[in-house]
Amino acid sequence: MKNTNPLLKYILKRFNILIILCVVIGMLPYKISATSDVPTPPKEFPIYTYHTHPPFIITTGQGLSYDLAAYLSNKSHGRFQFTVKPMSRPRVNKMLAESKKGLVPWVNPAWFKDKQQNKYLWSKAVLMKDGNSLISNQKNRVLYDGPSSLDGMILGGVRGHVFADIDTYRKTAGNIRRVDAERHIDNFRKLAKQRIDVTITPQSGAEYLIKKKGFQDQLFISPMIHSQYTRRVIIISEQIDTGIYIDTLLEKMMTDPQWLKIMHNYR
């Protein structure tokens, strides 16, 4: 090799470099295509809810809130993974104050001092028309007729829940004692044992709870409801396009036969 022609050595060197380049270039498309085939994992989008009673949450993984999460995850086609995060109302307030990304479903602007809807981004879609029922013991039926009709009674409330008219009357002129529990079902059990006189429960869950928990012969639902309202969603997102995207999903959901069938299952 010592007597190899210098020109031949030069040609061989260039040829080797060319071969290496061809191999590298030949591999590049494979690497690019392999990378592009890896799907981007969906972004987690939490659903904060203090509505931990039926039909919204029946048990872990079961209830309307979980159905909502599954539906939105499916309809986002891999963009988001919605996950339910049950918590107290004060904790939800903290998430809102800190602008933590997420959804707060089954709520109404009046409950968050946002009747003008300029404090939070509210869904256009109304998820549900609902109301509050007044429940009492069958042995001591209470026919609700305004806050004054509860004078002298013990009202079973739920921690963090506000009954504007009754709470105002109770603090100013009324003789109503309020004792809070963690859940509506706790108040139903107290009513059955006559430890409280009345409680207020959403219509959407009152009949479900009474039937499923076997209170039909013990509890009475007043024919006059306490209040009526609609349930919507607060959308918390720093990205405007994300907020618009989710709002559109919710709006389309309300006419989707798939979602309407899910809702029907809880009636």
Produce the secondary structure layout:
Elements: H1 6-36, E1 43-49, H2 64-75, E2 80-86, H3 89-97, E3 102-107, E4 121-122, E5 128-137, E6 154-158, H4 164-172, E7 177-181, H5 184-192, E8 198-202, H6 203-212, E9 219-221, E10 227-236, H7 240-253, H8 257-264
Parallel strand pairs: 1-2, 6-7, 6-8
Antiparallel strand pairs: 3-10, 4-10, 5-8, 5-9, 5-10
In short:
With 267 residues, the chain is an alpha/beta fold. The chain has helices spanning 6-36, 64-75, 89-97, 164-172, 184-192, 203-212, 240-253, 257-264; strands spanning 43-49, 80-86, 102-107, 121-122, 128-137, 154-158, 177-181, 198-202, 219-221, 227-236. It folds into two domains: 43-129 and 229-264, 3-Layer(aba) Sandwich (D-Maltodextrin-Binding Protein, domain 2); 130-228, Periplasmic binding protein-like II (D-Maltodextrin-Binding Protein, domain 2).
Give descriptors for this structure.
267 residues, alpha/beta, D-Maltodextrin-Binding Protein, domain 2, 2 domains, two-stranded parallel sheet
Give a description of the structure.
- By secondary structure, the protein is an alpha/beta fold.
- Helices cover 38% and strands 22% of the residues.
- The chain has 8 helices and 10 strands.
- The strands form 2 sheets. Strands 3, 4, 5, 6, 7, 8, 9 and 10 form an 8-stranded mixed beta sheet that branches.
- Helix 4 links the parallel strand 6 and strand 7.
- The chain starts with 5 loop residues before the first helix and ends with a helix.
Question: Total number of β-strand segments?
Answer: 10
Average pLDDT figure: 86
Helix count?
8
pLDDT < 50 stretches: 6-15, 17-35
What assembly state would you assign to the polypeptide chains in this entry?
Answer: single chain
